[in-house]
Amino acid sequence: MKATIHITLKNGVLDPQGKAIENALGSLGFGGVDDVRQGKLIEVSLDESDADKARATLTDMCEKLLANTVIENYDIHLSEA
């Protein structure tokens, strides 16, 4: 089973890297770009065929290591390998 995990900052958490990207896009002539937020994308291959077990394992990974759940949200997408 393959998983894609999107990790983003929670609403209200300052995102200086997103702001820097927003400013850089503006200086390159891309007008009308507002509220840029950046995040992380993590791809994981699991030796698991049960989607519920895979999701539980991935949630545990996110809670313990991959995401700082105080300031970040995560979203798990599963697909067959």
What is this entry, summarized?
By secondary structure, the chain is an alpha+beta fold.
Structural class category: alpha+beta
User: How is the largest sheet built, in terms of strand order?
Assistant: 2-1-3
**Cα-to-Cα separation, first versus last residue:** 5 Å
The H-level CATH homologous superfamily, spelled out, is: Phosphoribosylformylglycinamidine synthase subunit PurS
Secondary-structure topology with pairs:
Elements (H helix, E strand, L loop, with lengths): L1 E8 L6 H12 L11 E7 L5 H16 L5 E8 L2
Explain what the structure shows:
This protein has helices spanning 16-27, 51-66; strands spanning 2-9, 39-45, 72-79. It has a single domain, classed as 2-Layer Sandwich (Mth169, Chain: A). It has a three-stranded antiparallel sheet, covered by helices on one side. It contains two helices and three strands, in the order βαβαβ. The model has no long low-confidence stretch (mean pLDDT 96). It is elongated and about 45 Å long. The chain has 81 residues and is of the alpha+beta class. The longest helix is centred in the last third of the chain and has 16 residues, at 51-66. Helices cover 35% and strands 28% of the residues.
